[in-house]
Amino acid sequence: MNERPRLTVLSGPSGVGKSTVVAHMRKEHPEVWLSVSATTRKPRPGEQHGVHYFFVTDEEMDKLIANGELLEWAEFAGNRYGTPRAAVLERLENGEPVLLEIDLQGARQVRESMTDAQLVFLAPPSWEELVRRLTGRGTEPPEVIERRLEAARTELAAEPEFDVTLVNTSVEDVASELLALMDVV
Ligand code: ADP
Ligand code: 5GP
């Protein structure tokens, strides 16, 4: 058991199953605190403000960045996303396990600013399966899928930068591997 829980960062290409794995894990272990990011992206059906994201305007995002309120932020496929700093630090101070689900650029920034963070890469079983999952989710129009697949090529190439790689073949298996890495079980 660690003295102080580490910050864990889960990253990986869009469509690999990050949200699915995290949702599964938190159903059984609600004590794992997942940071809620701010984004300029529009909500998908069913997404709630303050639960899945804080949906903000471009101007609001400009302010969060200018005021130094974000631990990291990045532009991804045409929208900006960032992690509110205060909530993360507060949870870590309280000794709670903290999880960030963010893109590669964000993971790199966290590695610089929080040197004891644990960086976990979620990889697809194959490229074909990634395309299938991203397309099958049915939440993005074809041009957005194209953009995300382009970003995915860069993200997959960055896998060696991470401390650990988990291959998302089974959601249950990956969720329990992630819990073990976070010292929750
Ligand atoms: P991300 O959060 O990484 O963008 P999602 O969690 O939205 O990805 O998953 C993308 C799609 O892949 C969803 O339709 C989800 O149901 C499916 N999916 C996730 N994990 C698996 C898995 N292990 N096997 C098959 N399908 C999966
Ligand atoms: P989506 O639009 O599918 O919810 O997320 C797109 C990408 O943005 C995903 O790779 C997701 O992990 C990433 N993302 C979500 N929140 C943040 C954040 O706060 N910071 C960064 N850098 N990336 C984020």
Automatic annotation (TrEMBL):
InterPro entries from the UniProt entry: GK/Ca_channel_bsu, Guanylate_kin-like_dom, Guanylate_kinase, Guanylate_kinase_CS, P-loop_NTPase
Single GO term (MF): ATP binding
Keywords for this protein: ATP-binding, Cytoplasm, Kinase, Nucleotide-binding, Transferase
Reaction(s) catalysed by this chain's protein: GMP + ATP = GDP + ADP
Residues at which ATP binds: 12-19
GO cellular component terms attached to this protein's record: cytosol
Cell compartments where the protein resides: Cytoplasm
Domain Guanylate kinase-like intervals: 5-183
EC number in record: 2.7.4.8
UniProt xrefs under Pfam families: Guanylate_kin
Gene3D superfamilies in UniProt: Guanylate Kinase phosphate binding domain, P-loop containing nucleotide triphosphate hydrolases
CDD domains with a match to the protein in the record: GMPK
Similarity field: Belongs to the guanylate kinase family.
Summary of the function given for this chain in its UniProt record: Essential for recycling GMP and indirectly, cGMP.
Protein name per UniProt: Guanylate kinase
Lineage: Bacteria, Bacillati, Actinomycetota, Actinomycetes, Kitasatosporales
Encoding gene, per UniProt annotation: gmk
